[in-house]
């Protein structure tokens, strides 16, 4: 289906209702943005993520990835020693040497990210200037970009946002007279990406482009004829960067569960003029499979209360899914940052009884959680074990990022991720 930009039926931009949001500022418990490398290095198959950081950064990444010492993953750490931090060594010379050795050893690298960390931020190491200098030296064989994964500046999933926002300025421009094109933005598991691409193709929308692409040289072009759907809710900076290049957001719920996936796909279908009969024919069978898979877990989850600590920024779409499709009751939905524009549809779908909080004061939030004694708490690893000791069932929020959960075929798996901790608790109590 070939349409011009003026023929695209853009939905009216929706704002969220004026529900009260508790603003919290205090001690918070989250991973740093370096963690995003765990899924990004698997997604972009010829990219390498070089963290400029400490041994602590290296240990974090090794632990998070579960990488054996024999493996050669597509990430590593240029370790800053005491002499670097003290200014005795020239960090730029040392970084140049590390990059030269890395590219000589790994000639398949086509895209190199220099990733800032807390130590590199503290000593004000200018990785932006280093990336520009090294890019000139190694062009055109390798593109070199930089972004910050520092815990000072980012939390957990913001690492992906920072990475993709750094990538957007280097995307090629649209060809002249290009027809309107759909871009799906946000790192998805390959199997999920393939499923969405197939559904869009069956509707007659396409070819659909994905950011990030699987190969550095296949990154999509962008310009005024690009309309984009977000597959992840934490891409605030990426959305801003795309719009600076002229792209237009298709505002939609996020594709979690049968309901969310249908609404997400329908937003694109309406924009590209797909008729109702074609849309329904394409989604009918996968939607039915998703609904049946979700229904298998409803008896275990319906009526159960759930409390979200802020961690992944997936909390609001997840609460919408659990409430609307499984009958769970969200008591508090905490999120690190609340972008009301990107999350408007999911936020508006939450019941008034669900208290929404932004940011964190962990001690106060723990007090509220203990007072409520919810059936399940979604939180980071640092809080899960202490809460379990107190008899409160938990779900690791990090698992919801590492696991493919978007789309119809994953809807049952997503429901099971919440049923599993309750099943475990039941078995332990027998």
Folded structure, characterized:
The protein has helices spanning 37-43, 55-65, 82-85, 91-105, 118-122, 127-138, 158-167, 190-203, 236-244, 257-271, 276-295, 298-301, 315-326, 344-348, 362-372, 381-389, 397-402, 411-429; strands at residues 21-25, 47-53, 75-79, 111-116, 143-148, 181-185, 209-211, 226-230, 248-249, 305-308, 329-335, 355-360, 376-379, 394-396. Helix content is 44%, strand content 16%. The strands form three sheets. The chain has a six-stranded parallel beta sheet, sandwiched between helices. It has a four-stranded parallel beta sheet with strand order 3-2-4-5, sandwiched between helices. A four-stranded parallel beta sheet has the order 7-6-8-9, with helices on one face. The protein is of the alpha/beta class and 430 residues long. The chain has three domains: 5-17 and 172-287, Rossmann fold; 33-154, Nitrogenase molybdenum iron protein domain (Rossmann fold, 3-Layer(aba) Sandwich), CATH 3.40.50.1980; 293-429, Rossmann fold, CATH 3.40.50.
Tell me which CATH architecture of the largest domain applies here: 3-Layer(aba) Sandwich
Stated plainly, the CATH topology of the largest domain is called Rossmann fold
Care to count the β-strands? 14
Count of domains: 3
Q: Please, how many helices?
A: 18
* CA-CA gap between termini: 58 Å
Q: Runs with pLDDT <50, length 5+?
A: none
Name the average pLDDT.
Answer: 90
Assess the beta-strand content as a share of residues.
Answer: 15-25%
Choose one word for the global shape: globular
Radius of gyration, whole Å:
22 Å
Q: Main sheet?
A: 6 strands, parallel
Helical amount among residues, as a percent range?
40-55%
Q: Which CATH class of the largest domain?
A: Alpha Beta
CATH homologous superfamily designation of the largest domain: Nitrogenase molybdenum iron protein domain
Biggest sheet: strand arrangement: 1-12-11-10-13-14
């Amino acid at each position: 289906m070939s349409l011009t930009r003026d023929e695209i039926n853009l939905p009216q931009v929706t704002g969220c209702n004026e529900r009260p949001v508790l603003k919290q500022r205090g001690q918070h418990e989250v991973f740093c943005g370096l963690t995003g490398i765990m899924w990004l290095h698997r997604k972009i198959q010829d990219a390498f993520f070089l963290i400029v950081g400490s041994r602590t950064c290296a240990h974090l990444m090794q632990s998070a990835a579960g990488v054996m010492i024999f493996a050669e993953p597509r990430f590593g750490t240029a370790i800053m020693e005491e002499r670097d931090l003290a200014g005795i060594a020239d960090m730029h010379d040392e970084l140049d040497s590390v990059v030269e050795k890395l590219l000589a050893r790994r000639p398949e690298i086509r895209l190199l990210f220099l990733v800032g960390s807390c130590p590199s931020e503290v000593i004000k190491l200018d990785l932006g200037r280093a990336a520009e200098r090294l890019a000139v030296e190694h062009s055109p064989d390798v593109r070199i970009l930089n972004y910050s994964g520092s815990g000072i500046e980012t939390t957990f999933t913001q690492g992906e946002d920072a990475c993709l926002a750094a990538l957007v300025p280097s995307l090629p421009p649209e060809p002249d007279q290009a027809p309107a094109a759909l871009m799906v933005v946000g790192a998805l598991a390959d199997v999920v990406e393939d499923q969405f691409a197939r559904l869009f193709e069956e509707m007659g929308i396409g070819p659909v482009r994905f950011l990030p692409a699987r190969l550095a040289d296949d990154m999509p072009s962008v310009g005024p004829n690009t309309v984009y759907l977000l597959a992840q809710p934490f891409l605030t900076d990426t959305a801003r960067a795309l719009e600076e290049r002229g792209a237009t957001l298709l505002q939609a719920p996020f594709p979690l569960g049968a309901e969310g996936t249908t609404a997400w796909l329908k937003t694109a279908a309406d924009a590209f003029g797909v008729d109702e009969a074609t849309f329904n024919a394409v989604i009918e069978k996968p939607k039915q499979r998703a609904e049946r898979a979700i229904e298998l877990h409803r008896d275990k989850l319906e009526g159960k209360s759930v409390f979200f600590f802020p961690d992944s920024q997936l909390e609001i779409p997840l609460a919408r899914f659990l409430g609307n499709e499984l009958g769970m009751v969200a008591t508090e939905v905490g999120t690190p940052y609340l972008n009301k524009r990107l999350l408007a549809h999911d936020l508006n779908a939450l019941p008034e009884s669900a208290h929404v909080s932004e940011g964190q004061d962990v001690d106060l939030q723990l007090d509220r959680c203990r007072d409520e004694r919810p059936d399940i708490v979604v939180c980071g690893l640092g809080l899960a074990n202490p809460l379990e000791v107190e008899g409160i069932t938990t779900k690791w929020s990090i698992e919801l990022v590492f696991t493919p959960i978007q789309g119809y075929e994953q809807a049952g798996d997503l429901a099971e991720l919440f049923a599993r901790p309750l099943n475990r608790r039941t078995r332990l109590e027998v």
